[in-house]
Design goal:
Subcellular location: Membrane
Order of helices and strands: HHHHHHHHH
Shape: globular
Protein name: Zinc transporter ZIP1
Number of domains: 1
Number of strands: 0
GO molecular function, one term: zinc ion transmembrane transporter activity
Number of helices: 9
Low-confidence stretches: 143-168
Radius of gyration: 25 Å
Pfam families: Zip
Helix content: over 70%
Keywords: Membrane, Transmembrane, Transmembrane helix
Structural class: mainly alpha
Length: 326
């Protein structure tokens, strides 16, 4: 009777901790939207507000960079190698690193496919518009006006067509990377919640939830800032923050359910599957983080030292949280 009551009380504490984690993450994530009214609306910022937001974006870049290099990737590689060691499998091929690479190339393929499809639609719309205009001119008895297009030397066939194709819109790239960033962070949050839910020791599970809470209070507002920087609407930013907030409790609930019906062999299989998904999520997170940092840092020529200082500050803050949780 006492054992069952202790189990129920531990379960209640764990679920309450996950609910508190969700509430705190949602509050911190929506705070930038409430503080900056124009964030995610596409409206122009004032000069002072624009500079402040640019510095805040650099801080967020540092946070995500530290999360990627010091948290996600090392934990994934360590857990993956440990899972294979427990299964008695000695790898001759760097499978964990290969899974990480596939996670990196998957969003790259997605982004290139979306942009190619978008360019084809724009080219088709342009051809339809020109066709409608020429038909209208023919009906009114006017010959279509043609202009001699000077062909560049060495430009023939498909090469000329590719040269005349629409240029890649950096806004679309940023939108795709924002989607990838949200997806990878949400998967990582779900897996961390799963780890907390799988803990049979109530105190250890509570400590993991507290550690996640400290990180979420930093990561959630940074996610909202980066999504606002990616020209997403306020509703899309709020929905992404809500999704990110729900993933840890959802993963924790799944972990609690798995602890009630699991064996030692199934535990190893679950860990292997968990780390495989985490490897793909870590690879996508590397792509989204590096792509956003390189794109936005290359696009600003002012306040380089201040921007670098804020990036290093964000990196240092997240490094401190990772160090405390070791």
């Amino acid at each position: 009777m006492d054992a069952s009551s202790d189990t129920m009380s531990g379960l209640a504490v764990k679920l309450a901790s996950l609910a508190g984690l969700m509430s705190a993450t949602l509050f911190c994530g929506l705070a930038p939207l409430c503080a900056v009214k124009r964030l995610g609306t596409g409206s122009a910022y004032s000069a002072t507000q624009g500079r402040a937001l640019n510095l805040a974006f650099c801080f967020a870049d540092g946070v995500f960079l530290a999360t990627c290099l010091l948290d996600q990737v090392p934990n994934y590689l360590k857990g993956m190698h440990k899972a294979f060691d427990n299964l008695g499998i000695k790898l001759q091929f760097p499978l964990p690193e290969f899974i990480l690479s596939m996670g990196f190339f998957l969003p790259l393929l997605l982004e290139r496919t979306v942009l190619t499809y978008k360019d084809q639609l724009e080219r088709l719309a342009l051809l339809v518009e020109l066709s409608v205009q020429s038909q209208g001119e023919d009906k009114h008895g006017h010959a279509p006006v043609t202009q001699d297009v000077e062909e560049e030397p060495g430009c023939k066939g498909r090469a000329c067509e590719e040269a005349a194709s629409p240029s890649t819109d950096p806004g679309w790239c940023s939108t795709v990377r924002s989607f990838v960033l949200t997806l990878s962070l949400s998967l990582h949050a779900a897996l961390q919640g799963l780890t907390a839910g799988l803990q049979r020791d109530g105190r250890l599970g509570l400590w993991l939830c507290a550690a996640l809470l400290a990180r979420r209070c930093i990561t959630a507002p940074c996610l909202a800032l980066k999504l606002g920087q990616g020209r997403l609407r306020r509703s899309a930013v709020a929905g992404s923050v809500l999704l990110f907030s729900l993933m840890s409790p959802l993963g924790g609930a799944v972990g609690v359910a798995l602890t009630r019906a699991s064996t030692s062999s199934s535990d190893l299989q679950q860990r292997l599957a968990k780390f495989t998904v985490e490897g793909v999520a870590s690879g996508t997170f590397i792509y989204a983080t590096m792509g956003e940092i390189l794109q936005h840092e290359a696009g600003y020529a002012q306040s380089r030292i201040s921007r670098l200082g804020l990036l290093l500050t964000g990196f240092a803050v997240m490094t401190g949280l990772v160090f405390i949780n070791i």
